[in-house]
Amino acid sequence: MDTMSLLMQGFAVALTPESIMFAVIGAILGTLIGALPGLGPANGVAILIPLAFSLGLSPTSSLILLTSVYAGAMYGGRISSILLNIPGDEPAMMTCLDGYPMALKGKAAEALAISAIASFIGSFIATIGLVILAPILAKFALKFGPSEYFALFALAFATLGGITGKNQFKTLMAAAIGLMIATVGIDISTGVQRFTYNTLELFEGVDFIIAIVGLFAISELLFFLERHAGDGLKQVAINKLKLSPKDIVKVLPASFRGAVLGFVAGVLPGAGASLGSFISYTLEKRVSDKGEFGKGDPRGVAAPEAGNNGAASGALVPMLTLGVPGSGTTAVLLAMLISLNISPGPMLFQQNADLVWGVIAAMFVGNLVLLLLNIPMVGIFVKLLSIPPKYLMPVVTLIASVGIYSVSHSALDLYFMVGFGVLGYIFRKVDIPLVPIILGMLLGPEMEKSLRHALVLSDGDWGVLFNSGLSIGLWIVAILGLVLPVIVGPIIRAKMKKSKDTVKDV
Amino acid sequence: MLNTISLKSVLITGAAALTIAGQAYAYEPARSAECIAPANPGGGWDFTCRSVGKVLVDQEYFKGNVQTVNMSGAGGGVAFAHTVSKRDKDDNLIVAASTATTTRLAQGQFPGMNSDQVKWVGTLGADYGIIAVGKDSKYTSLTQVIEALKKDPGAVKFAGGSASGGWDHLKVLMTAQKAHVEKLPKIRYLAFSGGSEALVQVVGGHVDAFTGDISEVKGFMDSGDLRVLAVLSEERLPAPFDTIPTAMEQGIDSVAPNWRGFYVPGNASADSYDWWVNTMNELYTTQEWKDIMTKNGLMPFHKSGAEFTQFVKNQTLDIKILSQDIGLIK
């Protein structure tokens, strides 16, 4: 009841012309970025954060813009999966399996439409889940003391490699690099400066936003340069849409199941969208006894799309209520919130109710916008796919530089950004994942702080870390999260690869 | 109490006198001015710049606008260094400051810099310190907390939103010192990245007591989750905070206003400095500013010109001595 009235207030924020405008802009830019092969939602949000800064947007508008970008990128990811058989990012990989065969069969338009509807259902249901779960979790969060937080952060790091992490060792390395960067600056528990060498600019540590924009956006630029800014990619032609209500009804159950599974996967810290789309697809294959999975079954498009969009909204739950991101993109959003002096956690729902509920309501609005954009206007996005990157990348670089400079008016920040860009380029070359670096930077100081607080409160007794049911439960999940991927991960990845190879043979 | 009132009336009369004299100033403000907020958007300094900038334009002190420039870093140190080294003669620049600025200056956290390098214009209000506990706490007054600390300085653990040695930490130490608690360095303080994080830990029952500012606690006070034991002000605050006893009422002579104000570059012309002082005095009396204060929980606290400069000097010295006493700095 209370939630309903708060949500209605949220709609009052989300339905102002300004909010709608940012939702529409975010949806369009997000879809575009998601559609470009290789550019996922984390990059998308990272590229557009500086835009929010340079426009001097209010926190609410910034967050509406960026969550719309996030949702849009999840929608857009399917376009290149279906038309090019190149997933925009990892979660979109499962969509290739049945989407591309459908396109080859001359049903590209249907595949795009079905996936748009499934994406809508996924996001919609998961946003409802967010509305129900977030306030409950926010109240529950009061039970989290320093030792519980420490266990939770340990969990986030443990599940970091996740099921889709390519190389556990490199993930570990990346997280360690992030933690190392995070030690620079004042140590708030003692007030001592660490690794700052009397450089004032380093006193507050290395800014996450600069690291994110450098690592993701600038390294992307370097990659494009390397590819000599090639031409657009070859794609399957699009036919005229012939979709009967019956076809839509047929994929509804798959979409609903995918949405719920995706949401659950998204809520778990670290698991994220890839897991959501993967589980949804495999389950759908098992539940539907007959069907032509892998050869262009519409349900095989609907389930993973609903799953990855569901997971996207699900990942916002731990980010908003506990300040622990459930995925790479939410980590980027979290960094953005912190930069705007908004601390996530239970207080967010008290102090910034307008912002939280406004953003949640905006997600409903943005989702509707995306559905409307993606069915009739899908042709336009497809055309955009063929824009040569030589026009696109300079714009990205310009936005990034202006945005970063406007945050602190310091040229040093720009050098840092470029430095991180080069670093990001090298890391990606040697397959070191970037997201764990960001998580390390974001969560490292928090984890250190929690540990020290727990020990101060217990007067130095380490047993405090395991003294509540909640923390023991979190430790168990953390250990499972660490061990399971090592055992199950290779099996699942092999399966994913196998299914994809089959598609290529078609 | 009488003291404060007479002080205020003196200032207002002074302000009025200056207004008349103001016409004769050699300094004419440019079309636009700049206000540096030494932090990212959304914090206290950013608020100070933006709200004062808006009033300055609304009241037609500037025909153009007062541009807020965010320059974060080193808790204000980057902006301070920038002002001293690059903008030393700029007449059209003001920089937002607060107790956090004087605390860092006092503790030498802006290496090679001190409070004499800039000119202190004035304050436009303050956020008073408070000490609070969760609703289930066994403590019902500040006196009880102090008694517990006297027996064992580690008995009550405090959570606050500033780093160790920062203003929230110092408020506890100042109060304990005034109440003659021994072994101050043994008092446990848990540093959080913001007041709200610390508050949640106290309300959740994980930490004993909260040290922060009055503006941070309204939500949890209204919901009944938090019991504010004392406000560190000279007299009781206006409603709805008038039910909170002051520390002084409880026999502890501890006052901790977190003021919001400005400094200008050290070599800005004397005329422009006078103009800014005068303008801040006038601004403080406008209805528009009073409304902003009420809306944002700022309490009356106004000092300007020479008086403010002396105040900054004293505060810096007090904090320095206290920090040395408790071993935070050498």
From TrEMBL, chain A:
<feature type="transmembrane region" description="Helical">
    <location>
        <begin position="260"/>
        <end position="283"/>
    </location>
</feature>
<dbReference type="Pfam" id="PF01970">
    <property type="entry name" value="TctA"/>
</dbReference>
<keyword id="KW-0812">Transmembrane</keyword>
<protein>
    <submittedName>
        <fullName>Putative tricarboxylic transport membrane protein</fullName>
    </submittedName>
</protein>
<feature type="transmembrane region" description="Helical">
    <location>
        <begin position="322"/>
        <end position="343"/>
    </location>
</feature>
<feature type="domain" description="DUF112">
    <location>
        <begin position="20"/>
        <end position="439"/>
    </location>
</feature>
<feature type="transmembrane region" description="Helical">
    <location>
        <begin position="464"/>
        <end position="492"/>
    </location>
</feature>
<feature type="transmembrane region" description="Helical">
    <location>
        <begin position="172"/>
        <end position="193"/>
    </location>
</feature>
<feature type="transmembrane region" description="Helical">
    <location>
        <begin position="111"/>
        <end position="137"/>
    </location>
</feature>
<feature type="transmembrane region" description="Helical">
    <location>
        <begin position="149"/>
        <end position="165"/>
    </location>
</feature>
<feature type="transmembrane region" description="Helical">
    <location>
        <begin position="20"/>
        <end position="39"/>
    </location>
</feature>
<dbReference type="InterPro" id="IPR002823">
    <property type="entry name" value="DUF112_TM"/>
</dbReference>
<feature type="transmembrane region" description="Helical">
    <location>
        <begin position="414"/>
        <end position="444"/>
    </location>
</feature>
<feature type="transmembrane region" description="Helical">
    <location>
        <begin position="205"/>
        <end position="225"/>
    </location>
</feature>
<feature type="transmembrane region" description="Helical">
    <location>
        <begin position="391"/>
        <end position="407"/>
    </location>
</feature>
<keyword id="KW-0472">Membrane</keyword>
<keyword id="KW-1133">Transmembrane helix</keyword>
<feature type="transmembrane region" description="Helical">
    <location>
        <begin position="45"/>
        <end position="71"/>
    </location>
</feature>
<feature type="transmembrane region" description="Helical">
    <location>
        <begin position="355"/>
        <end position="385"/>
    </location>
</feature>
TrEMBL record, chain B:
<comment type="similarity">
    <text>Belongs to the UPF0065 (bug) family.</text>
</comment>
<feature type="signal peptide">
    <location>
        <begin position="1"/>
        <end position="26"/>
    </location>
</feature>
<keyword id="KW-0732">Signal</keyword>
<protein>
    <submittedName>
        <fullName>Putative tricarboxylic transport membrane protein</fullName>
    </submittedName>
</protein>
<dbReference type="Pfam" id="PF03401">
    <property type="entry name" value="TctC"/>
</dbReference>
<dbReference type="InterPro" id="IPR042100">
    <property type="entry name" value="Bug_dom1"/>
</dbReference>
<dbReference type="InterPro" id="IPR005064">
    <property type="entry name" value="BUG"/>
</dbReference>
